[in-house]
């Protein structure tokens, strides 16, 4: 039975360029709410959507154990954020660390891409509905999650409502894999960090190519 009370959280797409600036500012100890507000105003029309956007950026950073990990490795993360693929993966991990729905959608799509080339939104909605129920809120959060994945280059839209896997992103820096792992362990607290050879075969790791690290 679906857990109707499970938190959804991602009520609006988070622009990755704005999130990247906010993350880097936080790591440098230079967080600037006014700057984030200005950037959000260029992205969204309407005071309500702008307020939601600012709130979502702030809570994604402040209420996130992945960010705690990044702060503990801030110099390495700031360096990695300068590389496009690394930035996309780190931001994807931060979002997955904050929003359980996004993590589960990443995994659900990865599992489906193992057995078929294309996945449509109806199938994903049925899969996610087993955990979150079938209602308008779930549909909206799914739309936002897919938009985040598209922007991060994790999936490709074939046509409206149909998606295929993108080529796994190749990071330049090993810290990026560490951040991705951290987001996995946060969502899978019973997973063992002692057996990392099998870790990379988990569906969540389909989006990252570590062969060159």
Folded structure, characterized:
By secondary structure, the protein is mainly alpha-helical. It has eleven helices and three strands. It has helices at residues 16-27, 33-43, 47-62, 65-72, 74-80, 84-98, 100-115, 121-132, 136-152, 174-187, 196-199, and strands at 118-120, 155-159, 162-165. It has a three-stranded antiparallel beta sheet with strand order 1-3-2. A hairpin with a 2-residue loop joins strand 2 and strand 3 (162-165). It starts with 15 loop residues before the first helix and ends in a 14-residue tail after the last helix.
| Class by SSE composition | mainly alpha
- The topology string of helices and strands comes to HHHHHHHEHHEEHH
Strand order of the largest sheet: 1-3-2
Helix content: 55-70%
Strand count, sense and barrel status of the largest sheet are:
3 strands, antiparallel
Span between termini: 42 Å
Average pLDDT reading: 93
Stretches where pLDDT is under 50 for at least 5 consecutive residues are: 1-5
